[in-house]
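Worked problem 6 (solution included).
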Amino acid sequence: MTPTSIRPLPAPAGAAEARQKVEQALTLVGEARQENGALPDVFEEARAGLAGYEPHLQAIKFDRPDRDVSDHGRSLRQQAASASQDIQEGQPGQDRLEDLSAQVADLIDGAIQDLGGGNSTARWRLTSAKNDVGFALESSIPVTGISLRHASKAITESLDPYLVEVEEDAPGRDVGRFAEDIEELWLTAEEHLQVGPIYVRSTERSLESAQAYLELARQAL
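Solution. The predicted structure is:
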């Protein structure tokens, strides 16, 4: 009797396509984590640029008609411009983080669809990864972007009219009344720069978890 040859079972329909999408998602989620990992430095450098403003603010606050505090206004503008530049340089990374994460979510969706009703283990792991990425996209990533934009706005277009008044100070003028508005905007920017890193850490936890689930899903395919 001729022994019957044993043939390997064919891969489930869609498994190869799903695995390819998972591989792509793993590559992109790694890139997203790199972009997110660079953001704490952006926030820290911008905050450092705003530090030490108090002496200038005090000089403006106690301005008198016989004083000229215009130099203090120019110093504050230089600080604000430096911090704003740090934020602007970090914004493309934030935008890329959001774009990469959205691509990862789409790839995971596609992989789940490729599997159809088969391979429940892989589908469960992919769904868990999808939930992690979705949470980041809906909560932490947008707030990080908002923090950057609002901090930049506070120390540029919102602050500019008050700094112009101070920079135009001269004997006979008293610009002390603008100190409170300047301080409020400065503190607003600092607050956004303090909040942003909290959400950066949340994004890292979500993407790290998603990456782990994707690796487990790959093993099940």
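Discussion: Residues 141 and 203 are 6 Å apart (CA to CA).
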